[in-house]
Amino acid sequence: MRPLLLRSPWFRRVFAAALGLSLGFLLVAVWSWWQTYTVGVLATELREAFGRRDAAAIENLFCWEGVDAATRSRLRLVIQQEHELPVASVVVRPLLAFDRQSGPGLRPNLPPDAVIEVTFATADRLSAAYLAGRDGLFRHRLVVMLPAN
After folding, report:
1. Domain-by-domain residue ranges, the chain?
2. CA distance 100 to 103
3. In principle, which of 49, 86, 97, 145 could form an S-S bond with 106, CB 3.0–4.6 Å?
4. Which pLDDT value is given to residue 68?
């Protein structure tokens, strides 16, 4: 025989609501952790590629979907200029409201989720900030800004 409390429809409804909220909170927490983890993996891969001075590995971290040859060539030139610099730090930071806005005449090829900031170990502490966007469920990639059409 079940206790009187377990037979109460009110108790069952409150229990179901609490269970649903708990599961929803758990899913949001797991999703948030996963997003943070995959951005961290991308930042680590970027730091390692800079450490090896491997321009091809840096280039492979970008999402090239929808990127025309001229834009890709310009970005390769920037990578070639930066890949020889020693890296002091690589930091992941959340997007600011400014980071979410497309530049004048530009649009991102992936919706940005975070910013990866690379500070180089130079006398003037040169730095570069890369937008990171989710490419599918399991990976983040560096975002390329494309001309808006």
Report:
1. 7-147
2. 9
3. 145
4. 87
Q: Which residues are 146's β-sheet partners?
A: 107
Q: What is the rounded distance in angstroms from the CA atom of residue 73 to the CA atom of residue 58?
A: 14
Runs of H (alpha helix) within the chain: 4-7, 9-52, 55-60, 69-82, 97-100
The class of domain 7-147 in CATH terms is: alpha beta
- The torsion angles phi and psi of 117, rounded to 5 degrees, stand at -105, 125
Rounded Cα distance between 82 and 18, Å, is 52
Res. 146 pLDDT band, cuts 50 70 90: confident
Secondary structure class of 112 (helix, strand, coil): strand
Q: What's the predicted TM-score (pTM) here?
A: 0.80
What are the phi and psi torsion angles at 45 (to 5°)? -60, -40
